[in-house]
Amino acid sequence: MEVKTSLLDNMIGVGDMVLLEPLSEDSFLENLKNRFDHNEIYTYIGSVVISMNPYRSLPIYTPDKVEEYRNRNFYELSPHIYALADEAYRSLRDQDKDQCILITGESGAGKTEASKLVMSYVAAVCGKGQEVNKVKEQLLQSNPVLEAFGNAKTVRNDNSSRFGKYMDIEFDFKGDPLGGVISNYLLEKSRVVKQPRGERNFHIFYQLLSGASDDTLKKLKLHRDFSKYNYLSLDSAVVNGLDDAANFRTVRNAMQIVGFMEDEVQSVLELVAAVLKLGNIEFKPESRCNGTDESRIKDKNDLKEMCELLGIEQSVLERAFSYRTVEAKMEKVSTTLNVAQAYYARDALAKNLYSRLFSWLVTRINESIKAQAKTRHKVMGVLDIYGFEIFEDNSFEQFIINYCNEKLQQIFIELTLREEQEEYVREGIEWTNIEYFNNAIICDLIENNQNGILAMLDEECLRPGTVTDETFLDKLNTVCAEHQHFESRLSKNSKFLTDHSLPHSCFRIQHYAGKVLYRVEGFVDKNNDLLYRDLSQAMYKANHSLIKQLFPEGNPAKVNLKRPPTAGFQFRASVGTLMRNLQTKNPNYIRCIKPNDKKASHIFTESLVRHQVRYLGLMENVRVRRAGYAFRQAYEPCLERYKMLCKRTWPHWRGPAREGVEVLMADLQVPAEEFSYGRSKIFIRNPRTLFFLEERRRQCLQDLATLIQKIYRGWKCRSQFLLLKKSQIVVAAWYRRYAQQKKYQRIKSATTVVQSYTRGWQARKLLRDLKYQKRCEEAATTIAAYWHGTQARRELRRLKEEARRKHAVAVIWAYWQGLKVRREYRKFFRANAGKKIYDFTIQRIMQKYFLGLKSTMPSMSPIDKNWPARPYLFLDGVHTELRRIFHLWRCKKYRSQFTEEKKAVYEEKLEASEIFKDKKALYPSSVSQPFKGDYLEISKNPKYQKLSSAMDEKVLLADVVNKINRANGKGTARIFLLTKKSVVLADQKTGQVKASVPLPDLTSVSVSTQSDGFFALKLKEGSASAVKGDFLLSSEHLIEIITKLHRIGATAADREQLNIDISDEFLVQFKQDKVCVKFIQGAPKNGNSVSCKRKNNRLLEVSVPTTA
């Protein structure tokens, strides 16, 4: 059975839309439906993934699937979101290319789930380890927190993201995650105060009321009954399939994993409760004596409870709901608010409070998950943002969302074309320009700084006088009337005057995805997003730990009379930053489509899907991809797949893969215009050519299967025959063995008799021959000795005569050669002039090189990496060696400048590193501090003159330390003196010696692993110094003290080296009792100082502030 190794194998429909033939919108939808009906929810358009929401769980996200797609080519397996995630991750890890994954689609299409799948896949395939797993867990657990506060149930989706999210996940050089940064865009804060029919408020409100304990609700002054809160819609309060209570526990756990402190979680819940209380505040009208209308709060109980939660004086907030103060230069004008204005102020405060809380949550999560290392990181961005929205009633929110999608479409087309062009250039294929619709004109209509819609909306909001939505529409009709993508009933363009599908209070924009009708009602107010200054100042006066951070503009000392930036301006700036960020990364696209509006599985609504295919621009994407070559594949997998179609390449091709593909295509007689050869890939122009190859391969596989069956059956019959033959041979062999054994026994007995007579005769004959041979050898040796002597004497005489003749010939030859060489030298003198000139030139070049090197020498600093450029190529080796020799000499000169004192300081720093590096959190801060030793200048200070004279030896270290009292954990200041023989503790005020401990009595020193300065001097039991027990001390120069103690012990030959124990829990001997000293991390209370408390007679607890 053939192993499935390609998206072309056992394909349902077409796995890659680029190969769809014929290409039309109907065939496109038919292919999507065919694959969806067979649970194939993923389809490719080149490197773009189309994801259909199945509205049910499918068994395609298991750990086995993760391993199946891990480190595999993008087109090697059937389409899957894991293939895109793996391709992006491997490009980031192996090619050092920053990646971004853009997930788009309308609400309910599965964008949030797609982003979770991408993050979970990356978390599964990257490295392991305690720190790496912690970072991965924090990144994954940030999702439940943001979903609870930013997602809500809508008519289209039970878990709809009501904000845009972009997460940059940062990786190290190995591909392990280091942290991340989250950016949020345009939270739908209007949902806080009002929800459409059939929809809910944000999840956190329902989760809090359903899942919080009774004690928590009591502290927050809340009730479980949803109907008691005006901001919560009742018709969809309970959603099938959503367990709000369980989700609340999940959110609490996720916040703890991400790094939220318990008091921060409580503060967040208090603000959520305050928003619910705000919605219950109602107003009643009252008339003043001057005839003006004002408002009063009906029931102040909810106001009171809200003020208690936030720590605000009730009268301050009540006045802020009743009056509005307007400041202009040096004047202040206070006006009363009528009932409508009071409700507007209440809702504005609720929206701003929740929106700023959400932004604070994102910032707080970023602080926890950001990468700690300062080095450059590789980045993978995941963008989960709202898709294009066309409703019956489209307002400011839909306008902003669609503007964002216009920008994303613009960058999508630009980056897709750029990627296609780069591949063609990389492979050496001729690039053909592709005609496509450029939506830059629509983006310019919206964002142009002079006459764009957003600019005119901001201008209308800021101008003095009466500003309404109608005046804004009039301005649009004046400025944009002639724009080809803008339509309005009241514009100067007469062709729309009779268009009854275009109401008077609306305008229409022809987006890339179709025409959208916008109702201008609410545009000005939503763009202003105005919060009265009185409310901001009232919030700032709160005693709540979080409120002051959320409303910094309420600080009376920093009153800013400038109008805050509008919502449209802020969003346009955010989108611009996002676009610049995306353009620096390699893009990967996931286009999400929802098959029906009923949130039901197995239902494919063709009209709905057609609408999404159009506004996502998928058909245009296919055409862009097919404009050049529809299919491309590397030579190796192409040859491996189709090699059976040619006798010359089957079964094995021994040469390069490209030559094999060329032989294959030539043998199949594929027209040359249907394909092109790149540097590493073959490009096929028409899908029909690919399907032709696939059909030939299918037929060939059938023929091969028949051949294999034939060979197998032949082998099986031969094996049966050989088995029978082998059995017959075994039987015959056993019989012949028996017969031959009998015959052998008879022959053996006769042969033994014959052999015995024969061997006796042979032995006697051999003895006679040996004796004769020995006599002959002795005679021959004597004759040879005399003959060799005669021959040697003759040879000696001959050699002497030959030597005399050779000497005479050598002398004559030498004279002749000399004469001949002198003649040749005179003849060829000019021929040798070139070599001399060459040697002279080389000598001058070398001289010039060394003189030039002398004048361009770099500085004597060992860290200076500069070196003069090499003037000639043949000097490369010499140049490199001279640079190495100069660096070694310069380092030696630098080391020779060190004094003995400076060497000693570096040695102490080195020893401190060996003792404390990666063991004590206080160590890194001590690296940059020099070891001074005598911090009190005891020999110069007259205050310590008496104490200085009492010391017999040189004081190596003098510092003020705190001696810890076991009774209450408080410290008493003592002077700490260290000499080569003893440790002395003296009173700071009087200088009187309190204790002197000889260093031989000191057995060990105990310190914690944290950033405190506590250390315990443990004394030898039974010694005179140990009468009062060990010493528990605290010092700011702990690293230096223990390093000097350890150094003195290491240099002394008469005592053992001092033992240093680094642990967060150790025992200290106080007189007759042993007390446990335990170090814990806690929130800073008295500034950032370390606090020591007595818990009981046997335990002292030291609380060390947590370092950021």
Folded structure, characterized:
Residues 920-1106 form the TH1 domain. ATP binds at residues 105-112. One of its GO terms (molecular function) is microfilament motor activity. By secondary structure, this protein is of the alpha+beta class. Among the domains are: 45-270 and 358-395, Kinesin motor domain (Kinesin), CATH 3.40.850; 403-520, Up-down Bundle (Methane Monooxygenase Hydroxylase, Chain G, domain 1); 632-693, Alpha-Beta Plaits; 835-897, no CATH class; 901-1064, PH-domain like, CATH 2.30.29. Helix content is 48%, strand content 16%. The chain contains 31 helices and 31 strands. It has an eight-stranded mixed beta sheet with strand order 23-22-21-20-26-25-24-27, covered by helices on one side. A seven-stranded mixed beta sheet has the order 1-2-16-3-12-6-7, with helices on both faces. A hairpin with a 2-residue loop joins β1 and β2. α11 (314-322) runs antiparallel to α18 and α28 packs across α31 (1038-1051).
What labels would you give this structure?
disordered N terminus, 1108 residues, seven-stranded mixed beta sheet, alpha+beta, Alpha-Beta Plaits, 31 helices, Kinesin, ubl conjugation, eight-stranded mixed beta sheet
